[in-house]
Amino acid sequence: MSVPHPDDGATAASEDDAQALLSAAALASFRLNGRFLAAAEELARPAGLTAAWWQVLGAVLHEPLPVADIARAMGMTRQGVQRVAHLLVEHGLAEYLPNPAHRRAKLLRPTTEGYAAVRRIHPAHRALALRLSAEMGPDRLASAVEALHGLNRALDDIAAEETTAPGVASPGRLP
Which residues are in the HTH marR-type domain (predicted)? Predict the structure, then answer.
């Protein structure tokens, strides 16, 4: 809870409202993340993948990337992506390529088998997408996606401010 301002009850109430909204958004996001992960596991399993394997392969479908870039794009830890990348390579679903920009940070890209595994997910993914769109309505679903992007941008901005204003709470360093 925020500390009330004795001289301004309206400010204290609006701070409490903001804090309650942040908590509600976080809790809804945690639950949604769990639901998406469960759905991803269900969709990926018949293709011989896990949700994490699908996530990492999905990050490199259009261009090979180093592990650190995959981690940033997917909101994962570098170590987690590295572990999954090694498993993908070990299972013949991805391969490492030399990185002309960095000698030690190799690029990861799917193999033919990796692309095929992701393609096997598409029919079930499409069916779930159509069911979700029918349930919510396409406009409401698009608005929800835009709101999620907006929350991510706002948290990115707050995190960036932390690098220029030490001592201010950021998503990566809450008090």
Answer: 18-157
User: Tell me: the pLDDT tens digits for 4-30?
Assistant: 555 556 676 688 899 999 999 999 999
Token pair 């699908």 is found at 54
Nearest alpha carbon to residue 110 among 96, 124, 90: 96
How far apart CA 66 and CA 108 sit, in angstroms, is 6
pTM: 0.80
Centre a 10 Å sphere on the Cβ of residue 54 and count the other Cβ atoms it contains.
21
Helices (H), the chain: 9-44, 51-59, 67-74, 78-90, 112-136, 138-164
For the chain, domains (ranges, CATH) are 11-120 (1.10.10.10)
Residue with tokens 């499409």: 126
